[in-house]
């Protein structure tokens, strides 16, 4: 790429030329968040994708999020700067294995976390995200037992909040499982006035120390409103960009991983770069496409999620 290309300006121009909208997740690098039309958590992004009038949705997030956008708004073209931007939770729940798991519990109502493939969604009764999981599970008919996939930690958290027993798929996120309880406690000792905010994908031992647990958007709203000045943030570090922007006078401390070789950045999210975003808008590729039958089958549980979220 020539040094003379002003990527941000070119991206704005391409957006106008193609009537495109850029949707970005909070875990994207700051430069991408800054050129996006909308930055949000997975629920807000799905809602924005469902109602956009733009011809092209440029999705700066991971594959399952772009897939969700395509399913909810099938007549739009959906571009993803790097198609390899997957998700460990989704990868750890292969459709064939999930089908077999489901067959062992044929009477169960299936609630799948949005961090799953379209094929897994198509086998589900309703989808949830981290921001609406409690609300969704609370609406599952009381006479039905529940199978929850693929994040066991979110599942366990939801069980506690709702009092519903659920059969859990044993999945977890490679980013959220590396936070260490021991190092978090050490950090709390160093910052006794700090509040701990954590994403429900973290392990129970870590969540035990949190003052507030919620989706990325809920964590952001919480720290902006709280009268406290210091926060230990136990989720992917990309969210710190909006926290610092919204409250430049507060201190945000990213929680440390369990060892110095690990990292609290999602390697999949970080496959998207400003340069790849520019190239994909310039070339109209890579485009996310899905077989029509799969799209139709995954739409019903996603629609149900949007209805139950109101
Ligand atoms: P949110 O629902 O908070 O956007 O989280 C998505 C995600 O992938 C967390 O790892
Ligand atoms: Fe998936 Fe974890 Fe990355 Fe979220 S942070 S996209 S759950 S791998």
From TrEMBL:
Keywords, in A-Z order: 4Fe-4S, Cytoplasm, Iron, Iron-sulfur, Metal-binding, Pyridine nucleotide biosynthesis, Transferase
Primary localization class, coarse: cytoplasm
Residues binding [4Fe-4S] cluster, per UniProt: 87, 173, 266
Cofactor field: [4Fe-4S] cluster
Catalytic reactions on record: iminosuccinate + dihydroxyacetone phosphate = quinolinate + phosphate + 2 H2O + H(+)
Lineage: superkingdom: Bacteria
EC number: 2.5.1.72
One biological process term in Gene Ontology: 'de novo' NAD+ biosynthetic process from L-aspartate
Pathway assigned to this chain's UniProt record: Cofactor biosynthesis; NAD(+) biosynthesis; quinolinate from iminoaspartate: step 1/1
Cofactor detail note: Binds 1 [4Fe-4S] cluster per subunit.
InterPro entries: NadA (IPR003473), NadA_sf (IPR036094), Quinolinate_synth_type2 (IPR023066)
Binding site for iminosuccinate: 25, 42, 113-115, 130, 199-201, 216
GO terms of molecular function: 4 iron, 4 sulfur cluster binding; metal ion binding; quinolinate synthetase A activity
GO cellular component labels: cytosol
Subcellular location: Cytoplasm
PANTHER family (alphabetical): QUINOLINATE SYNTHASE, CHLOROPLASTIC, QUINOLINATE SYNTHETASE A
Function as written in the Swiss-Prot or TrEMBL entry: Catalyzes the condensation of iminoaspartate with dihydroxyacetone phosphate to form quinolinate.
Family affiliation: Belongs to the quinolinate synthase family. Type 2 subfamily.
Name the record gives this protein: Quinolinate synthase
Provenance organism: Cystobacter ferrugineus
Lineage: Bacteria, Pseudomonadati, Myxococcota, Myxococcia, Myxococcales
């Amino acid at each position: 790429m020539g040094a003379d290309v002003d990527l941000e300006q070119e991206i704005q121009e391409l957006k106008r030329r193609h009537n495109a909208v850029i949707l970005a997740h909070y875990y994207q690098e700051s430069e991408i968040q800054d050129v996006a039309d909308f930055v949000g958590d997975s629920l807000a992004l799905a809602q924005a994708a469902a109602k956009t009038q733009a011809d092209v949705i440029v999705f700066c997030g991971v594959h399952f999020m772009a897939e969700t956008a395509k399913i909810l708004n099938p007549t739009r073209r959906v571009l993803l700067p790097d198609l390899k931007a997957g998700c460990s939770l989704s990868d750890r729940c292969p459709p064939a294995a999930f089908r077999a798991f489901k067959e062992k519990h044929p009477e169960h109502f299936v609630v799948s976390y949005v961090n799953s493939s379209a094929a897994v969604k198509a086998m589900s009764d309703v989808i949830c995200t981290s921001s609406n999981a409690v609300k969704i599970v609370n609406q599952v008919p009381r006479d039905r037992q529940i199978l929850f996939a693929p994040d066991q930690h979110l599942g366990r958290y939801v069980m506690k909040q709702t009092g519903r027993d659920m059969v859990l798929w044993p999945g977890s996120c490679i980013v959220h499982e590396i936070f260490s309880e021991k190092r978090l406690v050490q950090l709390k000792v160093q910052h006794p006035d700090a509040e701990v905010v954590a994403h429900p994908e973290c392990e129970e031992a870590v969540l035990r120390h949190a003052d507030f647990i919620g989706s990325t958007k809920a964590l952001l709203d919480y720290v902006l409103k709280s009268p406290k000045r210091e926060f230990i943030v136990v989720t992917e570090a990309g969210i710190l960009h909006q926290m610092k922007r919204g409250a430049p006078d507060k201190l945000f401390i990213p929680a440390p991983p369990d060892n110095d070789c690990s990292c609290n950045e999602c390697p999949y999210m970080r496959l998207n770069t400003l340069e790849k975003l520019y190239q994909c808008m310039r070339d109209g590729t890579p485009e996310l496409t899905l077989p029509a039958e799969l799209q139709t089958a995954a739409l019903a549980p996603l629609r149900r999620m949007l209805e139950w979220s109101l």
